[in-house]
Amino acid sequence: MNQILPDISQTQQPNYSSPLAWVGMQGIDLPLQLEQSTGIYPILCKVNATVNLPRADIKGIHMSRLYQHCNQLQQLNILEIYQLLQKMITSHQDCGSSAAQFDCQFELLLQRHALSSPELCGWKAYPVKLHTKLENGKFRFEFGVEVSYSSTCPCSAALSRQVIHDTFVDDFQNDTELKTHQIAKWLLQNASLATPHSQRSLAQVTIRQHSITQDLKIIELIDLIEETLQTATQTAVKRIDEQTFAKRNGENLMFVEDAARRLSYALAQPYIDWSLKVDHQESLHPHNAVAYQHSEHWLTDI
């Protein structure tokens, strides 16, 4: 026999009558599948789900309804999230809700090959965040990724070269018949008298989309960032791979401004609305160097 249980959210008036911007649930655990061009990836998500509460006389929303709607989600794609937002609003018509938000964060685990040993590979996790909103029929979708890479300071590299140059001149100032093999031997022994400092760095890129028919191309964005910077952090390596990585660092010296400008140019080709932050976690200083950039209408297109 079904017993009728009390529901004070429907029978009791709020102590203070006022509308609320957003009400909902945060940190819901949700296993989903992410379909990409390279395959289907299982992901464990932390989800936030909220709706607006414009009716001042309603004590509380239907939390369990939000949870059940989220729990029915299986695939993480733009169309299904849009339909989820519609259900969240429809199920709260008695609260006067006209807007819903769905946020999600997870780590996308990808297998990455070594730079010079094609048989060698390892796993690398990429943090991903999604923010979506449906308000008065207007849909907004943003997804962002974080990519770690190495950045070698151009100033430090120049200073290191100067030390090596000065030492070379001092060692051979009286040698008028210098041979190639002498130079090569000296370089093997002394070319690291001073070395430029590098630091692990982070690129955080966010893309904004408005169409529900677009695909969620997360791996394509990650690949674009890594190909642009050329010095993505590595997983499994042998000495030859570490040498290749060192060579790439030497060929891609960059201040935080250089990294931001590189990425800005690369993102402007395939994307309309985007923003970025690059963070060089200094090895010389106890503080970090950061740079930000965004597309022309990023701040107004909200």
Assess the beta-strand content as a share of residues. 25-35%
Helix content: 25-40%
Number of separate structural domains: 1
- How are strands sequenced across the largest beta sheet? 1-2-3-4-5-6-7-8
One letter per element, helices H and strands E, the order comes to HEEHHEEEHHEHHHEE
Pathway: Cofactor biosynthesis; 7,8-dihydroneopterin triphosphate biosynthesis; 7,8-dihydroneopterin triphosphate from GTP: step 1/1
Keywords: Hydrolase
Catalytic activity: GTP + H2O = 7,8-dihydroneopterin 3'-triphosphate + formate + H(+)
EC number: 3.5.4.16
Commentary on this structure:
- Helix content is 30%, strand content 34%.
- It has a single domain, classed as Urate Oxidase (Roll).
- By secondary structure, it is an alpha+beta fold.
- It has an 8-stranded antiparallel beta sheet with strand order 1-2-3-4-5-6-7-8.
- Helix 6 crosses helix 8 (256-267).
- It starts with 7 loop residues before the first helix and ends in an 8-residue tail after the last strand.
- Converts GTP to 7,8-dihydroneopterin triphosphate.
- Its EC number is 3.5.4.16.
